[in-house]
Each structure stands twice: as C-alpha cells, then as structure tokens.
Amino acid sequence: MWDTFIIHPFTNLLLWIYSLMVNVPGAFGWAIILFTILIRVVTWPLNAQQLKGAQAMQELQNDKEWQAIQKKYAKDKEKLAQEQMRIYKEKGINPFSSCLPTLIQFPIIIGLYQAIIRSLATAPLSLLQLGRSLYPMLDAAALIPLNSRFLWMDLGRPEFIPIFGFNLPTLAIIVAVTTYIQSKLTMPASANPNDQSAAMNNTMSIYMPLLLGYFALTFASGLSVYFITSNLLGILQYALTGRANWRNLLPGGNKTPTAK
Amino acid sequence: MKPKRFLLPLVVILAALWLSACSGAALVNSWPGLTNDNETVYLAAGAHVYAIRLSDGHELWRYPAKANNNLQFIAPPVLAPDGSLIIGSAGADHRLVALDPTRLDPATQTPLEKWTFTDAQDRWIAGALVLENKVFAPNTDGNVYVLDLTDGLSTKKAVEQIDLGAPLWSQPVSNGTLVFITSMNHFLHAFDAQTYTSPWPPIDLGGAAPGSPLLGPDGSLYVGSFASRMVRVDTATGQATTFASTQGWVWSGATLDGDTLYFGDLEGNFYAYRSDGQLAWSIQPDGPVVGSPLALPDFIVFATESGSVYAVDRQGKIVWQREVGGKIYTTPVSNNEYLLIAPMQAEFALSAHDLNGSQVWSFTPKK
C-alpha cells in the first residue's frame, strides 16, 4: 500500500525528471532539486495554511482575554477547555490548522526520502527492487543505474570535503544552518514569558537543525540536497508573506517590546 | 521546564529513529556470497564470513570474531592458489582481506589475516579474480585494483589501478591473456593482464550488467544485461552481436555445458540456447532467476526468487524441484556430492542437499 501509493509514484516521478535531463552533468542532483520544488509548489497552500495557523495560535498566547481565562480556570480544566473553544470560535481560529498540514506533509517527506534512497540503488537487492518499482513508460534499462555524481558529491554517499586532512561535512553544516534560519524566521515574537508554544518553538529550533544535520552527516547526500532545497524554499515562501521575523536570527531577538 | 516542552522534540526524535531504521545505512541490502572447496563452504553473509564443514554443516570459524557494523560481507569469497581466502567488505570500512584458513588465532578461533588492502574508495560487491600471482579486485569506486599476491606485504599497495569509470559489481574473467569485466554503466571492458592496455574500446551492452561474462571454449564471451539480451563478443576483435533476446533483464552470468548455454531472466524464464544461437528449450519456473545456473553431471541446477531449487536435464525436463524457502538470489555451488543453497529471509542461512534435492543439513549462525 505504502509502496504502491507513495514510493512508486515518487520514485517514477523523480526518475522521469531525471530522464528529461539525463545528459546534463549532475542530472540526478538537478532532478532532486526540481522534484523538491515541485513538491513544495504542490504543498504550498498547505504550508501557507500551517504558517497562518501557527501565527494565529502564537498571537493568541499574547491575547489578554486568553491569558485571563488561563489564570481564572487554572484548576477547572473542563471550563478552561470550554472557554478556549469559545475564543477560538470568536476569533475564527482552528486550533488544528497548524498541525494538520504538517501531518499531511509528513508522509510526503518520508516518501520523498525513500524515493531518493530507492532511486540511488547502491546495492544489488536495492537495484532489484528499483527495477520493479518503475512504470513501463520509463526506459528503465537505459536509465539504470543512475549517475549519482552531482557537483563534488556522490549523492549515494554522505558528503565530506577533505580540508587540511580533516573531512569537513559541508552539506551537513549547510543543512543545519538553513534549518535553523528557517525555524527562527517562522517563529513569531512573544511577549508572554509563560508562552508554552514559544518555549516549544525555541526548543525545536535547536533540536531540528541538529537532527537534520545528523541525517545529512549519516545518510546519502542526495537527502541533504533535498533538505537544503526545501529549507531555502521554505525561507523564500515565508519571506514572500512579509512575516519573516529576521530579528529572531540575532541573540535575544525573539522578544517583542513590552508596554510599560 | 515543563514536560510538554519536550513532547514535540521527542516525537521528532522517534521519527528520526524510524527514518534511520528504514534507511539501511548500517546494513548492506544484498544477498550472501558463496564459494566452496571439497571440504569447506565459505558463506559471506552480513557481519561475518563463515567457514562451514561440508560434511555436516558445522561452523569451523567466523571472521571477524565479533560483529562490527562497519564490516559487511556480500561478495563471494575467493580461494587463491596459495590457499588464501580473499574477502571484501561492503560496509563503511571497505577493506579487502586475505585470510589464512589454515591458521586460526588460538584465542578467537578466527583465521589470521595474511594481508589487507584499504586504499579502495568504496565497497566490495564483486569477487576478485586471481590470475597467476596477481589479484584483480573490482570495486564500486570504478577501479580494478591489481595487487601482487607474492610481494609478501601485509598491507598491500596496488601495483596498478585501472579506472573503468563506473561501479563494478561483477567478478572479472580471463582467458589467461586478457581480463574481461562488466561495469554498471552498461559496458564490457577488456584489458591486458600484463600491460593493462585495452585491445578494443568498451562495448555498450545497452543496459547495466551486474553479472560476470562467460568465456566460451571458442574464445567468445557471453554477457547478459538489463537490455534483455545475451550478447556474444569475439574477444579477438571486440565485435559484439546479439546472441539471444530474453523476455526480462538478465542479472547473472550464463553457464555453458557442452554446446549449450543456460541462463535465466527476471521475468521468470529459464533458457537453453545452442552455441549457434538457436533456442533449444525454455521453461517457466515459479519465479525470477537471479543467480547463475550450475551444471552438474546429470542435470542443470538453478534457483528462483520464490525460494525453489530446480534440477532440469539437458532436454529441459524437470528432474526435481525443492522448495527451500525464503528468497534465493545466490548462485548455488556444489562439490558434486552436496548442493549448497544460501537463501535470504529463510529460517537458515545455508542448506546442503544431496543430488536428489533432499536436505542433508542446514546452517543457522549462532548468536
């Protein structure tokens, strides 16, 4: 089921893009970039909805009425939930609007990752599985195996650049930095010191770069190309909405000025 | 700090572990390599290479003594004329090692290393070719490394590095003068075993060729590929002609017996072609045929991905069929008394059968 509806279509789409540019140097790297752009364009409305929802929830944390009911009904969870729902309705906020798009995108991200790994097929059994994943429209015999070279990288292997006898994981660093920038930019300012959502965002902005950087360090560099492209597109998308919080990139920049 | 703050990071870390689990980063996604002499069968299966006594399936030793995630073995071990067993790792530590199976470390009961070669840039999927005093070792970094078997060095340096430009998954073959090898970028290469120069340009096979070429007695080479055909090459001139078209991709090399060529394809066909290119017969077993067939005195043996082993006579009649279980991709081997089968995803890693197909013993590595 997962293979049929997610991995096979993704793998075939990726290889179809690859087949269009098979004679271009670094074709598979470009195919991953184009594929990521395509996925980002298709999921653009979902991303926009997620950002909008997250922003609304964050703004709600600074709302005086919201803060008041938190204090007032701190010991009555049922009443608190009723009051929260009332405020959601009044302000037209869907509390799930920020997490639902993420849930929908999660299989896409996993599928894309698996499609990249499957396409690279660096071992015999993987190649056998790849051959069976491909639709008849593709000239599989001519395409396989893919040329995994892209710029200085072998997309089937983790990337390092040897500098002064030390293997510098360039892509892993770029992945971590772009993930950090993206998460910081999309993090709204908060004036509420008890804002749990902001605290969680802060934690995530540290964990996520480290985690994705670790992936980039460990897994095939084709995945890093996907992460970087996706991050840059995410930054671009948010910048285009005019809500990017560039001050967040500076230390202590995630606080809004409080009224005296 | 409140516990909720760590809920989302925890979910992300769990997702990361899930991704890690499905990446196969530590393990190599392939089937075992197998070879034998008259008394011992050598199985390269994941973290270890095992030496197993042919008569009863008893494990004689394993290398390395303790599993190491960086060492993974799938390439068929190769027995050199000097008694060395040459094995290559497809793990992150891609070393080629020559073991001395006759000398075991008293403490670990693991064979001593005669020499190691660690200069290759990538994994070893193919077995090496030993020709007189030279080892021709093809690596997935696209190079055939030529090592001197007799230089006495414990840490080998390549005497020559022949760059063929694409991953090499197949064991080379030789007619004594020239070495022939296929590369995954669809080419068949030839080079002189002494001067390493090519007598003719690489031949485009039209598809990837993960299997070894077969050298016929008349000097012709037979090479199958993902182009769904078997190509015959005149080794003197480098002229290639289509010998046979197949319904599916051809993964492994063919086997020649008398004047008949036997091979299978991934669409689940098994063919017998006369050397004049005429189809003698074909049958459809219960699954794709990945490994090469094995010619025994009374019949031809081959295995299918569906886990069956077939013995067919020279006229294409099935003599017997046995369901071994799991999935069989590895080419069977035999000492003319036992038939050895190494399935994947089966209850055991290796089974020995008599020549009627009945199982004599099975081998499951102890933890």
Features:
heterodimer, A: 260 residues, mainly alpha, two-stranded antiparallel sheet, two-stranded antiparallel ribbon, 66% helix, disordered C terminus, B: 367 residues, mainly beta, four-stranded antiparallel beta sheet, 1 helix, globular
Which secondary structure elements does this structure contain, and how are they paired or packed?
The complex is a heterodimer of chains A (260) and B (367).
Chain A: H1 2-20, H2 27-42, H3 44-61, H4 64-72, H5 77-91, H6 100-120, H7 124-133, H8 140-143, E1 149-150, E2 153-154, E3 161-163, E4 166-168, H9 170-185, H10 196-218, H11 221-240
Chain B: H1 7-23, E1 33-36, E2 40-45, E3 48-53, E4 59-63, E5 78-79, E6 85-88, E7 96-104, E8 111-117, E9 129-131, E10 134-138, E11 143-148, E12 160-163, E13 173-174, E14 178-182, E15 187-192, E16 203-204, E17 214-215, E18 220-225, E19 229-234, E20 239-245, E21 255-257, E22 260-264, E23 270-274, E24 279-283, E25 294-295, E26 300-303, E27 308-312, E28 318-323, E29 333-334, E30 339-341, E31 350-353, E32 359-363
Antiparallel strand pairs in B: 1-2, 2-3, 3-4, 5-6, 6-7, 7-8, 9-10, 10-11, 11-12, 13-14, 14-15, 15-16, 17-18, 18-19, 19-20, 21-22, 22-23, 23-24, 25-26, 26-27, 27-28, 29-30, 30-31, 31-32
Order of helices and strands of chain A: HHHHHHHHEEEEHHH
Q: Name the overall outline of chain A.
A: elongated
Can you give the helix content of chain B as a percent range?
Answer: under 10%
Query: What is the alpha-carbon Rg of chain A in Å?
Result: 22 Å
The largest sheet of chain A is: 2 strands, antiparallel
Query: What percent strand of chain A?
Result: under 5%
Question: Strands of the biggest beta sheet of chain B: in what spatial order?
Answer: 1-2-3-4
Distance between the termini of chain A: 59 Å
Total helical elements of chain A: 11
Question: What's the Cα radius of gyration of chain B?
Answer: 21 Å
